[in-house]
Amino acid sequence: MATSHIAHDCVLGDNSIVVNGVALGGHVIIGKYAIIGGLAAIHQFIHIGDHAMISGGSLVRKDVPPYTKAAKEPLSYVGINSIGLRRRGFEASKIREIQNIYRILYQKNYNTSQALGIIEAEMEATPERDEITQFIRNSQRGIMKGYFGG
User: Is residue 51 within 8 Å of residue 66, measured between CB atoms?
Assistant: First the structure.
């Protein structure tokens, strides 16, 4: 859209939306159906997962896992993109599964390695679970943190 900047070697997934004034540094990867809100600034080498949503004006310095919503400063997990997932035909049970994965990762006071171990040991293997765990394991910059505001 107007005044957006997409730098060199960026990859935008199918049906992704980059709103007015967004700035992407070089080598950014944006997944399918991801939405980047107006005036967001994305650091170079960032990976944004499929179906993620980033609020306008955000400064994105860490990778944003699939199916999540990201907001605040510093950029933090604020839930999953449940409305977007419903609009794209995800079943309620699949949305709950994704929520449960992110509860373990962001709300149970585990470090990332511990959370991944629990997710893989205790949750049924599904394409979504495997996509999330692989995304986190492959992150070069680390993933955004959870939100612990009061």
Answer: yes
